[in-house]
Each structure stands twice: as structure tokens, then as C-alpha cells.
């Protein structure tokens, strides 16, 4: 059974708690997600950019304000197994290994790295704007201090939950891949606004703010999305006419299928 959701630490509290720790954050591989996390952490004040290091396999990211470790792999050697096997001689139990790799199980991380102090985290790209949805689970030798440190770090860039590892494929399919679904929905809503006669910039602004406002209502009111939907839907009104079209297009069923398909792909990657 999954552990209950963890209440996120407010960003200011997280910054105060972590800044005094004097630790450094290093990324092996500066991909889109790693860059989003690094930018979010630096922007939150939880760590200065000088304490964040990356070993990128795409050189342009190395020139964006973060200190760079020397490369540990050639640009074409990116599989997680190969990375951890090459890093293994440099790792020690004094270091905490945090994996954000989708589909790579804890046991494999331990076998390849030789580490037992491991925490798996599945964040998402809204880390860059302090609105991440992150889920974490602990390896067998991760300490309470390790858990607290990682939770504070990711709480500074969004909300954090804990769950058993068996749920991580589904987490990846929902929140890990989910921002792309929402970006697509915002783009489609804006296109609908243009089709209805709105200028492009106004349509996009209204679409993005509408999604943000609706998500905030779900998060802050604690009401079920269906209840909030009903509050907008007047009898024979404009909203129910739009919802009827969405139902004709299997809108909900398509989103459900997208999450399931992404979770299935995550299992395949492992």
C-alpha cells in the first residue's frame, strides 16, 4: 500500500533548511528534465547555481550558468547501465545517488552502481517554474536524513509524494508524461479560439490561464473535478454543448488511454 501523500514544504522553509547543509547537487546527463530541475532549484534559492554541477552530453547546455563536471562518457554512451558502471569506481557510501531515470528499477540501480544509498524520484518538467509533481521512494540504505534532504530539495520546486516503487510506471505515465498532454490541450484550445475568431495571442493567453486556474481550483478547494465541472455547466448552456462535443470525441477515454500507454512504455523500458 502506498504511503500517504507528503505535504510539501513551503519553498522559503525548504531554502532555509537546505542552504545550511552545504551540499552540492550533481547531474550526470543534462537533459530536459535535469535542466528543468536545476533551473528550478537555482531559481527557488534552495541552492546557488555554483553548487549545481552537470555532466552534459549536449554541449550547449553546459554554457547556461551551471558549473560543469568533466565528461564521464562519450556523447554516444548514454544508457543508464553504462553510465553507472563507469561511475561505480568513483561512487562511495558518502554519496547519495538520486535517480530520475524513467523505468529503471531500484534493484538495477543498485546492481550497476554498487550503491545502496539510493532514492528514486519521478519529477516532471514544471520543475523549471516551481510547479513540479514529484514522487519518491527510498532504497534499502537511504537514511531518514537522505529522505528529508531530497524531499526538501524537490519541495522547493513543487509538490512531493511518496509511493512504493511498484507504482512508478503509472506515475511516469501520469505526471511524468502528463505535461505534454496538457500542452497539447492548451494548444488545441487556443486553436479553437482562433477558429472562433480570436487573435492568436489572446487565444493562447486565455487557454493557458484557464488551465492554470482550473488546476488551482482542484488543488486548493479539495473538490472533485466532476463537482467543479458541474458548477460551470448550466442546463442547455454553452459549456454542456462543448462537453457534448468532447464526449463525442472520447476525450476522457483518450486521456485515460494515453496515461496507460505511457505507463506500458515505461515498463518496456525497464
TrEMBL record:
Question: Where does this protein hold NADPH?
Answer: 76
- Organism annotation: Miscanthus lutarioriparius
Provide the protein name. Answer: Pyrroline-5-carboxylate reductase
Q: In what residue span(s) does the Pyrroline-5-carboxylate reductase dimerisation domain sit?
A: 165-269
Give the UniProt family note.
Belongs to the pyrroline-5-carboxylate reductase family.
Cited InterPro entries: 6-PGluconate_DH-like_C_sf, NAD(P)-bd_dom_sf, P5CR-like_CS, P5CR_dimer, Pyrroline-COOH_reductase
Q: Pathway, per UniProt? A: Amino-acid biosynthesis; L-proline biosynthesis; L-proline from L-glutamate 5-semialdehyde: step 1/1
Arranged from A to Z, the UniProt key words for this protein are: Amino-acid biosynthesis, NADP, Oxidoreductase, Proline biosynthesis
Tell me, what is an example of a GO biological process annotation in this record?
A: L-proline biosynthetic process
Q: What is the lineage of its organism?
A: Eukaryota, Viridiplantae, Streptophyta, Embryophyta, Tracheophyta
Q: Does this UniProt record's set of keywords contain Amino-acid biosynthesis? A: yes
Under the heading HAMAP family, the entry gives: P5C_reductase
What's its EC?
Answer: 1.5.1.2
The UniProt entry, under Pfam families, shows: P5CR_dimer
Q: What class of enzyme is it?
A: oxidoreductase
One Gene Ontology term of the molecular function aspect = pyrroline-5-carboxylate reductase activity
Q: Which reaction does it catalyse?
A: L-proline + NADP(+) = (S)-1-pyrroline-5-carboxylate + NADPH + 2 H(+)
Amino acid at each position: 500500500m502506498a504511503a500517504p501523500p507528503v505535504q510539501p514544504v513551503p519553498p522559503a522553509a525548504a531554502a532555509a533548511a537546505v542552504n545550511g547543509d552545504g551540499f552540492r547537487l550533481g547531474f550526470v546527463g543534462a537533459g530536459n528534465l535535469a535542466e528543468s530541475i536545476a533551473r528550478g532549484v537555482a531559481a527557488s534559492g534552495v541552492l546557488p547555481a555554483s553548487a549545481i554541477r552537470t555532466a552534459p552530453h549536449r554541449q550547449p547546455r553546459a554554457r547556461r550558468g551551471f558549473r560543469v563536471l568533466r565528461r564521464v562518457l562519450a556523447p554516444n554512451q548514454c544508457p543508464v547501465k553504462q553510465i553507472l558502471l563507469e561511475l561505480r569506481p568513483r561512487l562511495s557510501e558518502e554519496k547519495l545517488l538520486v535517480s530520475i531515470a524513467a523505468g529503471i528499477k531500484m534493484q538495477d540501480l543498485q546492481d550497476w552502481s554498487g550503491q545502496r544509498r539510493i532514492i528514486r524520484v519521478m519529477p516532471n518538467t514544471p520543475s523549471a517554474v516551481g510547479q513540479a509533481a514529484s514522487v519518491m521512494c527510498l532504497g534499502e540504505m537511504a537514511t531518514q536524513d537522505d529522505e528529508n534532504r531530497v524531499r526538501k530539495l524537490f519541495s522547493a520546486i513543487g509538490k512531493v509524494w511518496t509511493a512504493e516503487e511498484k507504482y512508478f510506471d503509472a506515475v511516469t505515465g501520469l505526471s511524468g508524461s502528463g505535461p505534454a498532454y496538457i500542452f497539447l490541450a492548451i494548444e488545441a484550445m487556443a486553436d479553437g479560439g482562433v477558429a472562433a475568431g480570436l487573435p492568436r495571442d489572446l487565444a493562447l493567453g486565455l487557454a493557458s490561464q484557464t488551465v492554470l486556474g482550473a488546476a488551482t481550483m482542484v488543488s486548493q478547494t479539495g473538490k472533485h473535478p466532476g463537482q467543479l465541472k458541474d458548477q460551470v455547466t448550466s442546463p442547455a448552456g454553452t459549456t454542456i454543448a462543448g462537453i457534448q462535443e468532447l464526449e463525442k470525441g472520447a476525450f476522457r477515454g483518450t486521456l485515460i488511454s494515453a496515461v496507460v500507454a505511457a505507463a506500458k512504455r515505461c515498463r518496456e523500458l525497464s
